[in-house]
Amino acid sequence: MSFINYSSREINCKLVYYGPGLCGKTTNLHYIYAKTSPDAKGKMISLATETERTLFFDFLPLSLGEIRGFKTRFHLYTVPGQVFYDASRKLILKGVDGVVFVADSQIERMEANIESLDNLRLNLTDQGYDLNKLPYVVQYNKRDLPNAAPMDQLREVLNPTKAPEFEACATSGAGVFDTLKAVAKSVLTELRRGQ
Amino acid sequence: MSGPDVMYPEEQQAMSLVCARLTRDANAKAVLLIGRDGQAIADAGDVDELDVTSLSSLTAGNVAATGGISKILREKDFFSQFHEGEKTHIHITLVGGRAILVVLFDERSSLGLVRLRVKKSSDEMVRLFDSVAKKAAAKSEPSILTEITDSDIDNLFND
Fold it and tell me: Which of A19, A56, B109, B118 could form a disulfide with A23 if both were Cys (CB 3.0 to 4.6 A apart)?
């Protein structure tokens, strides 16, 4: 849940990057961290296994500038994508303001994408949220790979509600900031509308 | 989506004072007050060298994970946790289900003293959070959100 501090004049929001294992959630955050000026970011934390798979979450605090004298701060989280970390994923969705679903474009990962998206809907419902009402953006990652599925096919299966969507290659950074901007903007717009 | 959590200057100042008094009374190194979603609310003591943002997020994650364990055990939330380090120890308490009070202390204090002082401060914090909730529900303070325009949001994302 967003937090507005009238004393320190800050608006804080929580964004969660969701998606199947190895789809590139952490890579998104690494790219954002690498390309953001030091004064606009905090330390990036990764709670990962020895093989660098996300164990609990990654965390990156970002400042996006000021609105009406209030600093806007976004806390970016990733969830662990592996199926058996479901309990952890539920916890990380608590208090979420906006979600990015990072899909793995590889045709072989279509099933994993579908399973993860179903899991996202279910876990949001458990936390009292509805994906259709939450600021939400879909990112089709790994578009550079030769085995990437056609966009039409991905769209049809993974984005039936026609949420804002972006093609990306998180390793090179293509589409990463477009995705972030879209979800952050949607969160602020929704926050204002909620008043 | 429910409305945002808020904090007003009057209560923020009062919470900072409670943190400062707890730091002193418990002989603590530092005290942090954190929202359950990991947002830093107030602090006191030696925080200059601390990465308060990271500490807040990790503590909230820790509390959430412990809450998950309590559910599996069909137990209510675990109200407090204690982590014993070589030099620095951490005492974590839930404040009225709304926030997390973290006390960092060393050999100059003891777990017993910290627990004793935390209880009193925690009660005061609950009263202050009640006050914030009442103000927010009554919408007695003007909201910044009503002043924000589309162009304000667009301008934030102009390169």
Answer: A19
Cα separation of B12 and B23, whole Å?
Answer: 16
The Cα–Cα gap between A102 and A140 comes to 6
Residues B99, B37: contact at Cβ < 8 Å? Answer: no
Contact present, B19 and B31 (Cβ < 8 Å): yes
User: Which B residues in the span 28-47 are in contact with A, Cβ-Cβ below 8 Å?
Assistant: 35-39, 41
Rg of chain B over Cα atoms, rounded to whole angstroms, equals: 17
Q: Which of residues 4-43 of A touch B (CB under 8 A)?
A: 4-8, 11-12, 14, 42-43
**Tokens 């790219």 sit on residue:** A31
Look up residue A195 and give its two tokens.
Answer: 């008043």
Pairing of the two strands A165-167 and A136-141: parallel
Q: pLDDT of B109-125, one tens digit each? A: 999 999 999 999 999 99
Domains of chain A by range and CATH? 3-189 (3.40.50.300)
Tell me the whole-structure pTM to 2 decimals: 0.93
**What pLDDT, in 10s, does the model give residues A112-124?**
999 999 999 999 9
> What topology is assigned to B9-156 in CATH?
Beta-Lactamase (3.30.450)
Chain A residues with beta carbon closer than 8 angstroms to that of B143: 4, 195
Q: Please, which residues 94-133 of chain A have a Cβ atom closer than 8 Å to chain B?
A: 94-95, 97, 129, 133
Distance of CA A166 to the CA centre of its chain: 12
Which of A60, A71, A94 best tests the B interface by mutation, with the highest count of B CBs <10 A? Answer: A94
pLDDT of residue B159: 62
Helix A25-35 and helix A176-193: axis angle, to 10°? 90
Phi and psi (nearest 5°) for A105? -70, -15
- CB-nearest partner of A59 from B13, B57, B154: B57
